[in-house]
Amino acid sequence: MDEHAKIEELGKPRVVIVGGGFGGLELAKALRHVNVQVVLIDKQNYHTFQPLLYQVATAGLDADDIVSPFRKILEDQGNVFFRMAEVQSVDTEAQVVKTSIGLVKYDYLVIATGATTNYFGDQEMAKNSVAIKSVEDAIMLRNTVLNNFEKALQVEDPVERNSLLDFVIVGGGPTGVEVAGALSELRKHVFPKDYRELDFKEMDIHLIQSGPTLLKGMSPEASQKALEFLQNFGVDVMLDCRVKSYDGYTVTLNTGQTLITRTLIWAAGVSGAPIEGIRKESILKGNRYQVDEHNRITGYNNVFAIGDIAAMVTSEYPEGHPMVAQPAIQQGKLLAKNIGNLLCQRALDTFHYDDKGAMATIGRNHAVADVKLFHKEFRTQGFLAWLMWTFVHVISLVSFRNRLAVFISWTWSYFSLDKGLRFIIGNKREPIPVEETAPKELV
Amino acid sequence: MDEHAKIEELGKPRVVIVGGGFGGLELAKALRHVNVQVVLIDKQNYHTFQPLLYQVATAGLDADDIVSPFRKILEDQGNVFFRMAEVQSVDTEAQVVKTSIGLVKYDYLVIATGATTNYFGDQEMAKNSVAIKSVEDAIMLRNTVLNNFEKALQVEDPVERNSLLDFVIVGGGPTGVEVAGALSELRKHVFPKDYRELDFKEMDIHLIQSGPTLLKGMSPEASQKALEFLQNFGVDVMLDCRVKSYDGYTVTLNTGQTLITRTLIWAAGVSGAPIEGIRKESILKGNRYQVDEHNRITGYNNVFAIGDIAAMVTSEYPEGHPMVAQPAIQQGKLLAKNIGNLLCQRALDTFHYDDKGAMATIGRNHAVADVKLFHKEFRTQGFLAWLMWTFVHVISLVSFRNRLAVFISWTWSYFSLDKGLRFIIGNKREPIPVEETAPKELV
């Protein structure tokens, strides 16, 4: 960039966006034709397509299929500057964001930090369980699963071996249901070929849901069919059940029953990820910022929040919008328009959520979908829902490169019944050591 | 596997292969129809296609494109058992291999542990430089390069900034040449779009070669053209030059000249990776095992070595065969046949290396090749060599899945001039901190 262009950029009002998830990225892109300078800050240098993280965790896709570097996505957009940094705090008086690499002044601040795993204060659970909120999480889960099976080959005690082969998934929302389904597919089609010496009748998959139905928030038909599909796939779904404790080995349920596993996958909830320096009075239940119908955080003029971190309380959504991609994307798009309105001193537009419905896949040919088309709700379960789910996820990926990669990977898996990405690269969680025995003769 | 089949397997002589590189994997596959039980031990659960590691390091391919899980490759072969373990030592009296997961008895032992980076005893270099011998190395190098550029955006001092932008590559063999070429392509086509605020005229790539030519062992035409191509791409090639020391920041050359870089890529040599317990008398220069013309380690009846770790001294190859894929593959194939011969008490076949030539790519449309076809040598440089290099590497990949992935990725890159895999996932090498300054205003 030449000096002239640089100075011109510096003269514009600056919008600082913290977080490049669905909301932050959409906002940055939608500000293309608004006369502002945009600084997008994220601790990663890539955008993650979170709805498919569970596929990375279960060897169906590789991480590179679902992430896109921010610099690549935004390379043609001259008014955006990306910075890889952790945001430490905000000073709303001085209008400055403090980051790991320095200070950033802003005229408009948009918090789009999304949500983080919610352990409801259970430190032991946070330490011993695995989550699927980031690419690093998903890779670690994949490595852990494969590593456990390698270890199971050397264990003769059946209880010890089961602790490596069994899985407990806590949370019956989309992530929990999708992981349980994917693990059951691996158990059926993939692992028995890889580990001929293990008996996969020994591998149990437990899905624990605190409420009476799976996929809370979807239609009763969707919840019911998801349950049926999972049970047909041999998943032990435990409804109205809660985990009391987990020490890395024994899961104790509220019924007093115990399960033994070295891998508990925690998909039971998320909460907002607020930033130091924003007034505490604006934080609602679930650590989300209370925002008005223009996504402005209450108590501020020029500080906004969008996506999972924002709770816009309306009569239709008394707890804020669902913490999924669509509200974030729609809020990002509208906020770009409203920042334009602010600059021209026009009245601001009000956010109306266009709910397109919800979907979850359980496995090959099996999904459930509640779709809103032309203001009519359309509910379907099974193959058609699975086709829709597949189509929507492929076209929603950020880059053409990712779309192509996922399409090819899925087509391949569909016909070969294989999931090809079964390698252990990077971090894994070493299980609590199996009781020490004398070196064991192999095979 | 049922009990009957299990007992039958256990009654067969057991071949234990340590290492699943080109040689070990080929041997395991070629033993399919030999009446033995095979135990393949590797510390990773996947085979790595090492010739393309440099592409992973330079964001041209993702790791999943060039690795294949052993269990997948060998899933149809009933007589192979894979174990993910580190080999600690061998007891050739008791015929037992000691591993991180227990003891393994053998009737025939084959060491195929390959080679490791050779720092020629320079501990400081081993600590401060980066290598490209494993997938984890390659990913770390990629993450380090990208991370350095992110940091360079925040640095005002030109020397400090240059230390993050400049690269020194030591070693003018195929890896050094290929990395230098790939970095120069990134500098030309990719990074300027990603980092508009940096001036890539500041990014220097130095390639240091101790001898008078690049690609030692290839034809003079190949060496000369490789030099020309690299110079045309703006790589500073320093021939007859050695590195005296590197403290993580300053590279001191034997000429007294110094270069400043936080990233020195060490591609200057490899040496064998011998195992504790094999007689030291059989170790030759470069830590390779002296083997006879049947790949039997001198001094043993039933212990073999193949590939990089084996030095079969002949009049044509007084220092053993080149440490590349082809000798390993050919030795693996012949050894399978010879193990069959041993079992039937037939005479053993003698190894003759079928040299198919050598190739190296410098960048888009530019490669050099010395190919042997029908015992005639054929030398070419430029576009045709590049086409041959591309074709040979795609078809040599282990699985159809990898071939398809690499083909698509390369086709994409060729037409888009893009290298898509520019994300920082997993370990990176944090540079020695830039001198602490007051928090700096961004942009």
Automatic annotation (TrEMBL), chains A, B:
EC number: 1.6.5.9
MF GO annotations: NADH dehydrogenase (quinone) (non-electrogenic) activity
One Pfam family hit: NDH2_C
Source organism, top-level taxon: Bacteria
Domain External alternative NADH-ubiquinone oxidoreductase-like C-terminal intervals: 356-414
Class of this enzyme: oxidoreductase
Domain FAD/NAD(P)-binding: 14-332
Residue spans crossing the bilayer: none
Catalytic activity line of the entry: a quinone + NADH + H(+) = a quinol + NAD(+)
Keyword set, alphabetical order: FAD, Flavoprotein, NAD, Oxidoreductase, Transit peptide
Family that this chain belongs to: Belongs to the NADH dehydrogenase family.
PANTHER family named among the record's database cross-references: EXTERNAL NADH-UBIQUINONE OXIDOREDUCTASE 1, MITOCHONDRIAL-RELATED (PTHR43706:SF47), NADH DEHYDROGENASE (PTHR43706)
Protein name: NADH:ubiquinone reductase (non-electrogenic)
Organism: Hymenobacter crusticola
